[in-house]
Amino acid sequence: MKTATVTATPKGLLVRTPYDPAFVAGLKASIPAAGRMWDATSKVWIVAHNYSQPLGALLSLHYPGVQMPAVAGALRFVKPFDVDGTRFLVVSDGEPDSAIDALAEAAKFAGRIDTIYVGPESGEGREFLARLARGAGGRSATATAGLHLAAAATLLLGSGT
Length: 161
Known about the structure:
Blueprint: E1 5-9, E2 12-16, H1 21-30, E3 36-39, E4 44-47, H2 52-62, H3 71-78, E5 87-92, H4 99-107, E6 112-117, H5 125-135, E7 140-142, H6 149-157
Parallel strand pairs: 5-6, 6-7
Antiparallel strand pairs: 1-2, 2-4, 3-4
Helix pairs in contact: 1-2, 3-4, 4-5
């Protein structure tokens, strides 16, 4: 079975796959040249983060089961901006690719991480995001029909505490 890996870095999403001309053609057709680059030395595609959705769709066609970086990858990506007094806000369904990795990444932060849960009422993700926020000195809120996303963000970030 062909496998692929995707790693989130500040440079972009590093995509390592076995050579597949159909995948390469699909990549070039779905992601503009400005959003992708082949690194011949490392033998990886570097794809801009804002093309993660078409990349994920393409990868699932050619490499079923590949995991796109989620919470842990996002935290690794923003870690270089973790300077004194910086606060972070994670908006998620709380279903990380790896809860252990996400919690470990969050523990490395000096700045506070607040979270907003946007998943289904019955989802287990709410508790995961609350744990992630507590572990990073932050707070957690839930965006529901009664409390929209913007209101939840204002609740967490507006107070400045």
